[in-house]
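[User] I wish I could look at a protein chain and see how it folds. I have put the entry right below:
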Amino acid sequence: MNAPKRNIQDPVEYSPTAIEREGERGIRILWNDGQSSSWTARELRDACPCATCREKRGETGGHEAVTLTDKNSDAASGNKPPQSLGLPVLSAAEARPLTIESMRPVGTYAYNIGFSDGHSSGLFTFERLRRPAE
């Protein structure tokens, strides 16, 4: 029994023809229709579409709150809950200037981008990456 052949068309109308570094912290993507898009590492990292990043952006802007208590306070003795100062905490990697460490194609529709802070789980679709050069 042979299944009928289906004509499946790629929904992507454009694709990158080249990716160039712009300094140490940026890239420029040239598209097959002559357009280009420029991104800094920070812009891409802040736009990461992975579930973890989306969740963090919706809750606390990407930083976890820190709870500090004085061991002699009522909070430490259990009489009242500790108060959060809501201060962001940066890892050593986050404190360094952010760079793009790698870009790996995913099929014919996206790139997986690895950043110097160790994050690499987002898939950046061509649609997300395409924007006019600034």
About this structure: The beta strands are 16-22, 26-31, 36-40, 100-106, 110-115, 123-125. The helical segments are 41-46, 51-59, 92-95, 126-129. Residues 22 and 122 are 21 Å apart (CA to CA). The chain has four helices and six strands.
